[in-house]
TrEMBL record:
Its main location: membrane. InterPro entries: Syntaxin/epimorphin_CS, T_SNARE_dom. One of its GO terms (biological process) is intracellular protein transport. GO terms for molecular function: SNAP receptor activity. Belongs to the syntaxin family. The lineage of its organism: Eukaryota, Viridiplantae, Streptophyta, Embryophyta, Tracheophyta. SUPFAM superfamilies: SNARE fusion complex. Residues 103-165 form the T-SNARE coiled-coil homology domain. This is t-SNARE coiled-coil homology domain-containing protein. It is found in: Membrane. PANTHER family: SYNAPTOSOMAL ASSOCIATED PROTEIN, SYNTAXIN-72.
């Protein structure tokens, strides 16, 4: 996904995919301690050298996870510094090679997208609640409709009888 982001030209897509990558990286980092415990367990048929190699691989895993590009400065610096990608040609670097206002813009966009996401979740919950309420009220409206139809029929009957009485 990180490599696919570099090919994107739509900034909104880049921001969304980078946020997704960061979430996945956070989830992976949360899973590393579990993996470390599993790596230490002896398994039947595995040599001590293989166990040590497996443990070394798990210990190197957090660094490899953090090295995945996700639109933040730390990931890019760990990979070997800043390199201009095709999708971020307008990003500014100062004379020290530090990232300019584009990073702040990206962070602000991430924050804005998070706020929009929370708002959409709230709207979804409201729509769900409204749907429940409508489902609850449909039988009541049907009952009222039936009673109104009956009252309308009675009124028409009464009007016919009244007209006959007036003409007599």
């Amino acid at each position: 996904k990180s490599e696919m982001v570099t090919m994107q030209t739509n900034r909104a897509t880049v921001v969304a995919k980078n946020a997704e990558i960061r979430r996945m990286k956070a989830w992976l980092m949360d899973e590393v301690p579990k993996l470390q415990k599993l790596a230490m367990k002896k398994v039947k048929g595995i040599s001590s050298e293989e166990l040590a190699v497996r443990n070394d691989m798990v210990l190197a895993l957090p660094e490899r996870i953090q090295a995945i590009r996700d639109g933040t400065t730390t990931a890019a610096n760990q990979i070997g510094g800043w390199a201009a990608s095709a999708s971020h040609k307008k990003m500014n670097f100062d004379s020290d090679g530090n990232f300019g206002s584009g990073c702040l813009l990206s962070y602000a966009q991430d924050q804005g997208l998070d706020i929009i996401s929370e708002g959409l979740d709230t709207l979804k919950d409201l729509a769900h609640d409204m749907n429940k309420e409508l489902d609850r009220q449909v039988p009541l409206v049907d009952e009222i409709d039936t009673k109104v139809d009956g009252a309308t029929a009675d009124l028409k009957n009464t009007n016919v009888r009244l007209k006959e009485t007036v003409t007599k």
